[in-house]
Amino acid sequence: MEDRIEISVLFDGDCPLCVREVRMLRRLDRGRIGFEDIAAPGFEASRYGLDSATLMARIHGVLGDSRVIEGMEVFRRAYAAVGLGWLLAPSRWPLLRPLCDAAYRSFARNRLRLTGRAGDGCDGERCATAM
């Protein structure tokens, strides 16, 4: 089977939890996931038709057809790409999907505070150093 990128994950390389998740995905990946650090110098959010604040507010991914997705759907697709889709399968079920999506949105709103970064120029929705 030919390797091909199914999703490129746009992640915050300054976020310890994000980096831990990316490391795990990279270990399991067999060429199906691309990774792009939105906190890296020179990263251009406009390349995806977005701005830095939007990208910092929640995780985004870019599919093979260039569609941009966000939130839990990024995790669903990335986990499926490494063979762990079954772990997040319940998050697709009609009764659980809205709850899982809401739980992620709540985490995303608070991740800078939860990772100890709220005091370094970040205000919960965006980080001045990433702009």
Q: What do you see in this structure?
A:
The protein is 39% helix and 13% strand. The protein is built from 5 helices and 4 strands. The protein has one domain (7-125). It is globular, with a radius of gyration of 15 Å. It has a 4-stranded mixed beta sheet with strand order 2-1-3-4, with helices on one face. The protein is α+β, with helices and mostly antiparallel strands and 131 residues long.
Strand content: 5-15%
Taking the alpha carbons of the first and last residues, their distance comes to 40 Å
Q: Based on helices, strands and strand pairing, what is the structural class?
A: alpha+beta
**Number of continuous helical runs:** 5
| Overall pLDDT confidence | 88
The major β-sheet equals: 4 strands, mixed
Instruction: State the low-pLDDT regions, or none.
Output: 121-131
Helix content: 25-40%
Question: What is the topology?
Answer:
Layout: E1 7-11, H1 16-28, E2 33-37, H2 52-57, E3 60-63, E4 68-70, H3 72-81, H4 85-88, H5 97-114
Parallel strand pairs: 1-2
Antiparallel strand pairs: 1-3, 3-4
Which features would summarize this protein structure in a list?
131 residues; alpha+beta; four-stranded mixed β-sheet; 5 helices; 4 strands; 39% helix; disordered C terminus
Task: Provide a brief overview of the structure.
The chain has helices at residues 16-28, 52-57, 72-81, 85-88, 97-114; strands at 7-11, 33-37, 60-63, 68-70. With 131 residues, the chain is α+β, with helices and mostly antiparallel strands. It has one domain (7-125).
